[in-house]
Amino acid sequence: MSISRVWGSFAAYPARYGVARYRLVVFPPGMTVGERRMLRLWRGWPLWGAALWLGLQIGGELSGMPETALIAGSMIYIAVGTLTFALAGETRMRVRTLCAVTMAGYRNDDADRRYAMLPVMARTLDHADLDLDEGRISASQHEARWWQVYDALDGMASTAPSLRASHTPSAIRAATSKPAIPRSTNPSGINIHHR
User: Fold this and answer.
1) How far apart are CA 179 and CA 192, in angstroms?
2) Residue 117: which pLDDT band, with cuts at 50, 70 and 90?
């Protein structure tokens, strides 16, 4: 599920084996339409840039110049990426992103806190859009709600632990620990508890 709006986007990626990823991206309030377009263009560059490069390779192969297409396609790919990077400007530095990864059967207080905040913030922004569309709030009230979520994400980023802090990431901790296996997930029906 992916929702893309004026304020950013919210995406939920259910995966296999009980792992789910969630991501909320909030653009800085007060952006112009042009800034938002350039920012979305920059953020999508890895995908559309790769498609452009692949198209250039196919075109070069069909025209009988695969070596030239490889060199020219790579140069165009880098040049276009650099151009979108420059056109997005400093706006890309002000984007706030909140990600959470949950794993069934494993608890991590930080991930659980982030996961709990994600739907609340996304719902707040979605309700602000709905209220604006239905005329219950003005554009300035909509932007004020947007600012509240943006500032909350900014506050969460400033209180987040440093990357240099010595801690074991939850995925590594989950992979190296020996938790009790619940009966419902044990295929043999034998309940095994590790101590």
Assistant:
1) 10
2) confident
